[in-house]
Amino acid sequence: MPDRILVVDDEPDLLELVRVNLSQSGYQVEVAESGEVALDLLRRSPPDLVILDLMLPDVPGTEICRRIRADPDLQHLPVVMLTARADEVDRVVGLELGADDYVVKPFSPRELALRVRAVLRRRTPAAEAGRALVHGSLRIDPERHRCELEGEAVPLTAKEFDLLRCLMERPGRVMTRDQLLDDVWGTDIAVTTRTIDTHLKRLREKLGTASDKIETVRGVGYRFAE
After folding, report:
1. Between vectors from CA 67 to CA 63 and to CA 70, what angle results, nearest 5°?
2. Which of 7, 26, 178, 212 is deepest in the core (most CB within 10 A)?
């Protein structure tokens, strides 16, 4: 099931823009135009993440965030705050109240989607995130940040290692270049999709006899062989 996201903002145009873009990114999106409506939705059916405007006409975003963190059933709910103010004090107050990230208006829809993905990824249990991945003679250990081929260490850069991990975690599944950018580079939106091709070319060269495990799906992206 796709992750459910609740977007809370009193600007209808912004709500629709965010809803459409997050839906296109594969999320199930609900919207609320006021703090009271948001609190009601949170109590009835908690989402997987909430995007919360700081300046709402009825209940301030800071108060909603405070109530979320005080509620045993909601206290671990990821919160991304939106605000039209870039003041350092506002950012600090939001984070001190328990917000997981902070986005200043105006923002690009892609930037917000990347930040949402990054926050949701951090929910992965530590044991699952750190388990070793093995495929034949190829093995990577995320906790030690070590890659081995036939028992010998393969020197990979941080991005090469993350790309390999991302593909090995989903054997047989095609990952588009945009998905790989989101997972590996996150909010660094200056990176282009051509960067993926360059890094994977170098990664294949370093993997030698295991290079054929990374398959190119023309016109789509890449996958790790099942």
Report:
1. 140
2. 7
pLDDT digits (tens, 9 = 90+) for 5-62: 999 999 999 999 999 999 988 899 999 999 999 999 999 999 999 999 988 889 988 8
Report CA dihedral (69, 74, 75, 76) to the nearest 10 degrees.
-140
Q: Rounded to whole angstroms, how far apart are CA atoms 170 and 172?
A: 6
- DSSP code string of 126-177: HHHHH--EEETTEEEETTTTEEEETTEE----HHHHHHHHHHHTSTT--EEH
Domain 4-121 CATH class label: alpha beta
Separation between Cα atoms, residue 162 and residue 103, nearest integer Å: 25
Is-same-fold flag (4-121; 127-224)? no
In the chain, where the domains are located: 4-121, 127-224
pLDDT in tens, 162-214: 899 989 988 888 888 888 887 787 755 566 778 888 889 999 999 999 999 99
Global pTM? 0.58
The architecture that CATH gives domain 127-224 is Orthogonal Bundle (1.10)
Q: DSSP characters for 7-59?
A: EE-S-HHHHHHHHHHHHHTT-EEEEESSHHHHHHHHHHS--SEEEEES--SSS
| Lowest-confidence region among 69-78, 79-88, 108-117 | 79-88
